[in-house]
Amino acid sequence: MLVNWSYDWIKVVDALNNVVIDDFNYENGIQGPITQKHCVKCIAANQCWFANEKNKKPEAMEYSIEQILNDSKNRIGLYHYNCHCKEIAIPAPRESDIQLICPEGKEAWLFKDKSEWIRALGHEPDEKFLEYLKNKVIENYCLGQYVIRGITKYGVAINVFADVEGRGEKANKIYRVKSGWMVFSNGKLKCNTFIGGWTK
User: pLDDT for 139-158, tens place per residue?
Assistant: First the structure.
């Protein structure tokens, strides 16, 4: 499928920090001495790609006119005072640019917990459906069909809205499901949950 190139995309870049969310283990997230020099939000977003739109990229700090006028030391930054992060314009990602990270157990949990959901869509809970769903996640992320749920020490959490086509008796129907992921650096998405619920 062709990507909707009308979306502007940005990459968050901190020129003074080469540490990214990928450098930390999934269980504990961002921790250690690095957090004394760089905030968790900046590390979580560093080198990550986002659609340049509200609720689809980390929100910038809002400063008052007084704060801006009194900023004689050039301390105002993107996310906080003394922040080194910048938003760099990048081309909209192509599906081939995206790499999915699926921690052990996520696929088994999908089939254990969501089999009835999958069958309700007219599909079978098998590897074929899993591959189909992964492709839909990549496709819809590239189209900017996601929202940020939050930013924590585990990274930038997003819900990707995946349009799943019905099969069998459900053919000609489109079901929109939420799929939970963490945005990792340079086009990587780490799975939290393949199917997190229905959405409109």
Answer: 999 999 999 999 999 999 99
Coil, strand or helix: which one is 6? Answer: coil
> What are the φ and ψ backbone dihedral angles of 70, each rounded to 5 degrees?
-90, 10
Coil vs helix vs strand at 82 = coil
Same domain, 34 and 116: no
The verdict on 26 and 53 lying in the same domain is: yes
Same domain, 124 and 46: no
Q: How many CA atoms lie within 13 A of 81 on its CB side?
A: 8
Domain extent for 158: 95-199
Q: Please tell me the pTM assigned to this model.
A: 0.88
pLDDT per position as a tens digit, 51-66: 999 999 999 887 777 7
Q: How far is 50 from 68, CA to CA, in rounded Å?
A: 26
Inter-residue contact 141 to 148 (CB < 8 Å) = no
Domains of the chain: total:
2
The tokens describing 156, both together, are 């930038």
Which of the listed residues 61, 90, 119 is the one where a domain comes to its end?
A: 90
Distances (CA, A) of 175 to 41, 119, 145, 172, 200: 33, 12, 14, 10, 9
